[in-house]
């Protein structure tokens, strides 16, 4: 089992460009969450995908969008890049197992994609 | 105010020392995670706790649900333990994580 994989590992873009980051979840996982981690900060939740739909969203503008495919892999798209979008983007996968309205399943993180916007 | 607060922010220890990192949170949770992040970014999940205490090798994690507090202990610290340790709590209704800003640990030989 390869665990959670992300591509590319590093990426350099310029302001105004668009970027697509990719994530393949751990085998057997159906839920993918994306996080942004700025330098020296803890990760911030962007959104979560389940059954090919965005289920939860953090406090990020519409420039950040995503997609989940039938094989549960996911993409994160960022349009009109700003310098402040430079960060490590982390993907985490889990299964969605809800008991009594509560989530119990552990999330596994990928290695991240480091995006630099110049 | 951040939902998750960690202390200390930075920690330097001599090899062999006993280390404690603290985490306090202010929201209801279904689970608390201790994560390890090495330079380069990859995050490894060390523990997932919803009550009590867990131990893996030299690492021990405890949680007090009533006090909304958790601690990560490292016994007989080693230079390879040098990393950023992040406390994260999971919302029970959304599965969303709230992260602390991390504790940067350096263990000197």
Q: How would you describe this protein?
A:
The complex is a heterodimer of chains A (118) and B (109). Chain A is mainly β and 118 residues long. Helices cover 0% and strands 52% of the residues of chain A. Chain A has no helices and 13 strands. In chain A, the strands form three sheets. In chain A, strands 2, 4, 5, 6, 9, 12 and 13 form a seven-stranded mixed β-sheet that branches. With 109 residues, chain B is mainly β. In chain B, 0% of the residues lie in helices and 59% in strands. In chain B, strands 2, 4, 5, 9, 10 and 11 form a six-stranded mixed β-sheet that branches. Chain B has a five-stranded antiparallel β-sheet with strand order 1-3-8-7-6, with no helix packed on it. The model of chain B has no long low-confidence stretch (mean pLDDT 90).
Major beta-sheet overview of chain A: 7 strands, mixed
Instruction: Tally the helices of chain B.
Output: 0
Task: Output the structural class of chain B.
Answer: mainly beta
Q: Poorly predicted ranges of chain A (pLDDT <50, ≥5 residues)?
A: none
Alpha carbon gyration radius of chain A: 14 Å
Distance between the termini of chain B: 37 Å
- Structural class given helices, strands, pairing of chain A? mainly beta
State the helical fraction of chain A: under 10%
From the alpha-carbon coordinates, what is the Rg of chain B to the nearest angstrom?
Answer: 13 Å
Mean pLDDT of chain B: 90
Which consecutive residue ranges of chain B, at least 5 long each, have pLDDT under 50?
A: none
Shape of chain A: globular
Order of helices and strands of chain B, N to C?
A: EEEEEEEEEEE
Largest interface: A-B, 31 and 28 residues
Could you say which overall geometry of chain B the principal axes of the C-alpha atoms support?
A: globular
Mean pLDDT level of chain A? 89
Number of DSSP helical runs of chain A: 0
């Amino acid at each position: 089992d390869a665990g959670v994989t992300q591509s590319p590992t590093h990426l350099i873009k310029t302001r105004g460009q668009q970027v697509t980051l990719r994530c393949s979840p751990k085998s057997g996982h159906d839920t993918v969450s994306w996080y942004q981690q700025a330098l020296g900060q803890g990760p911030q939740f962007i959104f979560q995908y389940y059954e090919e739909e965005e289920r939860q969203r953090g406090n990020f503008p519409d420039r950040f969008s995503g997609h989940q495919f039938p094989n549960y892999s996911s993409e994160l798209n960022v349009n009109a890049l700003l310098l402040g979008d430079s960060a490590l983007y982390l993907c985490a996968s889990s299964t969605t197992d809800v008991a009594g309205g509560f989530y119990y399943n552990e999330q596994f993180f990928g290695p991240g994609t480091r995006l630099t916007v110049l | 105010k951040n939902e998750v607060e960690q202390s200390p922010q930075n920690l330097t220890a001599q090899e062999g020392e006993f280390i404690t990192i603290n985490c306090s949170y202010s929201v209801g949770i279904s689970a608390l995670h201790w994560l390890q992040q090495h330079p380069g970014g990859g995050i490894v999940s060390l523990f997932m706790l919803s009550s009590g205490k867990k131990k893996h090798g030299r690492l021990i994690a405890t949680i007090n649900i009533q006090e909304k507090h958790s601690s990560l202990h490292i016994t007989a610290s080693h230079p390879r333990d040098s990393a950023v340790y992040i406390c994260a709590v999971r919302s029970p209704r959304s599965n969303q994580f709230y992260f602390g800003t991390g504790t940067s640990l350096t263990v000197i030989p």
